[in-house]
Design goal:
This protein is an alpha/beta fold. It has twelve helices and twelve strands. Helix 1 packs across helix 12.
């Protein structure tokens, strides 16, 4: 942007209901703290599994407009990558492996696609799963959903720690056989030596029964989008979490049915419960680091987290039952 042009640079956010996301309040404060200059965040809302031309149109606009710096993709990571793969000048190894994109950036005239979830999910996961947890407990991981976030989490579980400190088994549950096979194909490329069971199912009652055979201390993740982009939960209100389970609801706002189910059992089952807020922070800071070419030290991420937490606590209204939050 030339001096005096009066035109503002834009950072795009591609999601479902971007206007309801906390990032719309948080990003301006982050941009000021980081000294990013004149830049505004611009939301682009698409229905889940939107037609490919819709994704190509927004990617083309980002690529062609010099005021467009890049952006973050949520919910549509796999679909957008599939629709626009030929439009990218550079695709990072994680994006190649996962078949998804969460970060669009421009450098040296090239449009670049990165998958940041394996990095951001690992950082968030390691904050509440103690080092040595898997080795000490022999616990397993149950991932409801096969979207980009759960794929990234599974890769971190398989490769992010030494071999002796990984889940004994990972169980992935999804209603789409094609998505399960896609995840299986990615896992086959990793060859991490962790057993993975792929369960084709959409019946919450069956998911309840699945939880009954999971060892105590296991990680249970809701990555389905239920409670965010659609109502409900992958389990029923009768479902019982394993004792001492680590329960991760990847959403941070919306209905959050799965989160509330866990909260009702928190004391009786000794659960450790996390929502998607820290994942939200890590996801955005990883992408901002790439798009704006800034260094994100642990100290800076901590400062940005405190800023975001303050805005969330003082400005964010309690989400109503029909709100659908955005989760990175």
């Amino acid at each position: 942007m030339g001096p005096g042009s009066g035109r503002t640079r834009r950072f795009s956010f591609i999601g479902v209901t971007t206007g309801k996301s906390a990032i719309m309040r948080v990003f301006p404060a982050w941009a000021e703290h980081l000294g990013l200059g004149g830049v505004e965040i611009c939301g682009h809302d698409f229905a889940v599994h939107a037609p490919p031309p819709s994704y190509r149109e927004v990617v083309r606009a980002i690529a062609s407009d010099p005021l467009e710096l890049g952006g973050l993709v949520t919910t549509h990571k796999i679909d957008l990558f599939t629709a626009c793969r030929d439009m990218f000048d550079f695709i990072d190894p994680w994006a190649q492996l996962c078949g998804e994109v969460s970060s669009l950036s421009k450098r040296g005239g090239l449009l670049r696609a990165h998958a940041k979830d394996p990095i951001s999910s690992g950082r968030a996961l390691d904050e509440f799963v103690p080092q040595g947890h898997w080795a000490a407990t022999g616990a397993e991981a149950v991932l409801f959903g096969t979207g980009g976030s759960n794929l990234a989490i599974s890769l971190h579980l398989m490769t992010g720690r030494p071999g002796e400190d990984r889940p004994r088994r990972i169980v992935v549950v999804n209603r789409s056989p094609a998505r399960l096979e896609s995840m299986r194909a990615v896992h086959a490329e990793v060859l991490a030596g962790v057993e993975v069971e792929y369960v084709h199912n959409s019946d919450p009652v069956r998911n309840d029964r699945l939880l009954e055979r999971v060892p105590e201390g296991s990680l249970i993740v809701n990555g389905t989008g239920m409670g965010k982009d659609s109502p409900g939960s992958p389990i029923t209100d009768s479902g019982v979490f394993p004792e001492q389970a680590l329960v991760w609801e990847l959403n941070y706002r919306g209905e959050l049915g799965f989160l509330h189910q866990a909260e009702r059992q928190e004391l009786s089952r000794g659960l450790v419960i996390e929502d998607g807020w820290r994942y939200f922070v890590h996801g955005w800071t990883c992408v901002i680091e790439e798009v704006f070419d800034v260094e994100m030290t642990l100290e800076i991420v901590g400062e940005l987290s405190r800023i975001a937490r303050g805005l969330r606590e003082t400005s964010a209204p309690s989400p109503s039952a029909d709100e659908r939050g955005e989760q990175v």
